[in-house]
Amino acid sequence: MVNDFDLSTTLRQVRRASQQLTRLSGETRNRAIAVISQALRDSRDDILEANTLDLEASRGQQSWVLEGMKLTPERLEEAACHLDQLTLTPEPIGVMDQSWRTGEGDIFSRYRVPLGVIALVYEIYPEFALQGLGMGLKTANGLVLCSSHTLTHTHQVMIERLSEAAYTAGIPEGAIQVAPPDQVQLPDSDDTRLPPLLQQSRFVDLIIPCGRSSWVEALQQGSNTPVLATGLGYGYLYIDESASWQLVESLLTRGLSGETLDSRLVLQPVLLGLLMHRQWVDRHLPALIDLLSCQEIPLQADAAIAKSVSSDHHSGGLDPIHEGIDSAPLPSVRLQQVKDTNEAIQWLNKNGSLLSAGILSDSHQAISRFVQEIDTATILVNQLPLQVDYPMDVLMPCSVQKLHTRGPITLESLTTLKYVVTGQVGSRSGRV
Q1: Is residue 138 classed as helix, strand or coil in its secondary structure?
Q2: How far apart are CA 344 and CA 364, in angstroms?
Q3: Residue 156: which H helix or E strand, with range?
Q4: What angle do the packed helices 152-168 and 127-138 form, to 10 degrees?
Q5: Distance (Å, rounded) from C-alpha 173 to C-alpha 371?
Q6: For residue 199, what are the contacts with CB-CB under 8 A and spacing of at least 6?
Q7: Rg (CA), the chain
Q8: What's the angle, vertex CA 412, arms to CA 408 and CA 415, rounded to 5?
């Protein structure tokens, strides 16, 4: 990183380049994304070497944070495949998605256009930058990419190699910029100054963060630039009284298997929260504890569950629930008991994840009520969040806010609307 970094100059450059990006054809942008994908594969060894340096310097971090920082050949190949798939998706820019004529003869046309300049900032999950780079170019947005201090080497090598490849393929110089970590470093509690990048509403149209929920929330609260609130993880699953043991056993066995977890990034300590109907607990808790114990995943439990579990069923005991979402040292499954569906809905709307919630049930009535009343971005019915495969043109993490976009961040999420009103000559006689 250069020590004399000038943020204002950098943002002016990316703003100018973003205007040139909008004039490029979709074919040119697709070709650039394909070149970036190949450059990622060609640079694999250098990126992994840089990532190893970052991991060695971060040995004191919690294990799940280190796992989120880690890159492997498989993860880089998956990111390259994501870029390949982007080139095959329909052109999202300049497309008229709606048109109508008024009674006065005016024609209203609505088009999808780029947001302008998007800042992608992250503290873990380097693949986020790779996905965001491809999706940003696909939607003709200028990009500013910024990592945490812990991923400096990884980030620098990745973005330098890929931006060089993009420029050789026709992307305007300056359309992809790297900002040093201190541009989004949060101040100490007694320091009221905003991080520099968070003060740039004149040049940056949207900031998309990726990291722990507490970090994302702090960025959002400390910014005068629009920040897309995002979340990582898997939320809560309510097991209704009517849910069969066969359904629960099948989903948990597949969803919490080593193969499934190895293929997914566990980016927060609470892997999954199970909220269970009291009568279901009375019938199936011992079998559930045995099943989860076989997965060798740490368990947290509320007082009601812990009281119901004898040492015969779980010799190691159950840890109490950690209230802080970022506080648990290892990924775990959280077990809680509720009286009925009504209490489950009330609890989830007050304490649950804004990211997702699910229900396992054989009752159409319970499912309908749950879907209608739960306030979250994604609702899953008789499905585990860990088993949902989002399309390749979706950026992880997911949005947990209601304005602009909610749930999976798609290509459309990185665009905005432009209205064109065409009047009819001679159609307004008699009007002032």
Answers
A1: helix
A2: 16
A3: helix 152-168
A4: 30
A5: 47
A6: 223, 224, 225
A7: 24
A8: 125
pLDDT in tens, 254-311: 877 655 555 555 555 456 789 999 999 999 999 999 998 887 778 889 888 988 776 4
- Cβ proximity of 122 and 147 under 8 Å: yes
Say if residues 111 and 417 touch (Cβ distance below 8 Å): yes
Q: How far is CA 421 from CA 43, 99, 100, 235, in A?
A: 48, 10, 10, 44
Task: Give the span between the Cα atoms of 358 and 273, in whole angstroms.
Answer: 10
Partners of 270 in beta bridges: 332
The DSSP 8-state label assigned to residue 380 in this structure reads E
Distance (Å, rounded) from C-alpha 312 to C-alpha 330? 24
Q: What is the pLDDT of residue 310?
A: 62
How far is Cα 199 from Cα 123, in angstroms, rounded to an integer?
Answer: 19
What is the rounded distance in angstroms from the CA atom of residue 205 to the CA atom of residue 139? Answer: 14
In this predicted structure, what is the pLDDT of residue 262?
53
Q: What is the pLDDT of residue 432?
A: 32
What pLDDT is stored for residue 1 in this prediction?
A: 42
- Enter the pTM of the model: 0.85
Which residue ranges of the chain lie beneath pLDDT 70?
Answer: 1-4, 186-194, 233-234, 257-271, 310-317, 322-331, 386-393, 425-432
Maximum alpha-carbon separation in the chain: 89
The 378-381 sheet, strands edge to edge: 319-320, 299-301, 332-338, 270-277, 236-239, 356-360, 378-381
Whose structure tokens read 């977890």?
A: 261
Q: Which one, of 293, 302, 305, lies nearest residue 321 by Cα?
A: 302
Structure tokens of 106?
């005016």
**DSSP of 182-227:** GGSPPPPTT--PPPGGGG-TTT-SEEEEES-HHHHHHHHHT-SS-B
**Taking a C-beta distance cutoff of 8 angstroms, is the pair 406, 228 a contact?**
no
- Per-residue DSSP letter, 414: G
17-21, long-range: CB within 8 Å, 24+ apart, which pairs?
17/142, 17/172, 17/173, 17/174, 17/175, 18/114, 18/116, 18/117, 18/140, 18/141, 18/142, 18/175, 20/172, 20/175, 21/114, 21/137, 21/140, 21/141, 21/142, 21/171, 21/172, 21/175
Q: How far is CA 139 from CA 50, 268, 344, in A?
A: 29, 30, 40
Q: Are strands 270-277 and 415-422 parallel, antiparallel or unpaired?
A: unpaired
The residue type at 256: L
pLDDT of amino acid 67: 84
Q: Which helix (H) or strand (E) holds 236?
A: strand 236-239
